[in-house]
């Protein structure tokens, strides 16, 4: 804490000393005014006005407070820039308290590093830390409850573009992911896009018909299998989503699906390795999978 300038130091000294002298004189004056001085005024025959001596405990209270204040001032900083015999200041106390608190906190954190996912999920404090981290770093994109919004995927369902094993999710958060769905508008043409869009939608909606969707299926095998797989199951290596499970990040209507196919998509999950510690990321993964 910075020292007070001379002027303010004098103000503090004068006010403190003044207060102390006042307390002492108050105590003493109470002590010496213990005289009974009954006036001649009386009402109603029995009621009389007079000055009774102040109760003795007032005196002791005044003197007691003054003595307490003097001792306090000897030991603690309270008199201008005098530091007190104990050399402690509020700033000093705060620093010591915080150092203690941090010690405990980091000791606790390092034990969390050794803890496995299940145990972390059972630890309410660890889960509380993780949900705070999520609110601060992830909720703006993935939504407050991690269930996704707009083009930002749901993180608490069973659909994972990039894999749902803890080590895969850790990789996603740490290093980020860049999805590339190429644009197929030119090679497929409008009709081709329409056919293949109808084909994948029919699988996803469970309305697939061998006759009406045959053309789209053909194109799918030719252009899409490499990434989305023969059964439309997707591939976590490319971040290619499952197209048959009814979960759509860019919209489930035919127009959105055609748009995805014709113009491509480029979802980017930013890397967080410079913003979060490995422990924070591990906690986030435990938190995201807490109900699984
Ligand atoms: C700027 C927006 C943004 C922020 C902030 C963000 N993400 Fe993402 N995240 C995305 C996008 C977009 C994707 C989808 C990438 C894709 O298309 O493959 C994604 C994908 C993911 C995935 C992969 C989902 C899957 O299905 O495999 C995980 C896991 C994830 N984010 C977790 C997080 C966590 C945890 C945080 C906070 C530390 C976070 N994200 C912060 C935008 C964001
Ligand atoms: C090079 C690999 C690759 C190929 C080939 C590919 N895709 Fe994709 N596709 C992806 C990736 C990666 C994404 C996720 C894009 C993102 O998250 O931004 C995706 C996303 C999509 C989506 C959006 C899914 C959603 O949830 O909204 C559709 C629809 C789609 N692909 C259809 C197709 C079709 C049809 C073909 C063939 C004509 C095809 N893809 C070929 C990689 C590929």
Structure notes:
This protein is mostly helical. The protein has three domains: 83 residues, no CATH class; 99 residues, Cytochrome c-like domain (Cytochrome Bc1 Complex, Chain D, domain 2, Orthogonal Bundle); 82 residues, Cytochrome c-like domain (Cytochrome Bc1 Complex, Chain D, domain 2, Orthogonal Bundle). A hairpin with a 3-residue loop joins strand 1 and strand 2. The model has no long low-confidence stretch (mean pLDDT 89). The structure holds heme C (2 copies). The site of one heme C has 23 residues, from helix 6, helix 7 and strand 4.
At the fourth level of CATH, the homologous superfamily of the largest domain is Cytochrome c-like domain
Number of strands: 4
- What does the main sheet amount to? 2 strands, antiparallel
Q: Count the domains.
A: 3
Helix content: 55-70%
Bound molecules: heme C
List keywords for this structure.
12 helices, Cytochrome Bc1 Complex, Chain D, domain 2, two-stranded antiparallel sheet, two-stranded antiparallel ribbon, elongated, binds heme C, 3 domains, mainly alpha, 292 residues
Which SSEs are present, and which pair or pack?
Elements: H1 6-32, E1 37-43, E2 47-51, H2 56-75, H3 90-114, H4 117-121, H5 124-137, H6 139-142, H7 166-175, E3 177-178, H8 185-205, H9 214-223, H10 225-228, H11 254-263, E4 268-269, H12 278-288
Antiparallel strand pairs: 1-2, 3-4
Helix pairs in contact: 1-2, 5-12, 7-12, 8-9, 8-11
The structure holds heme C (2 copies).
One heme C binds at residues 137-138, 140-142, 152-153, 155, 160-162, 169, 172-173, 177, 179, 239, 267-270, 272, 284.
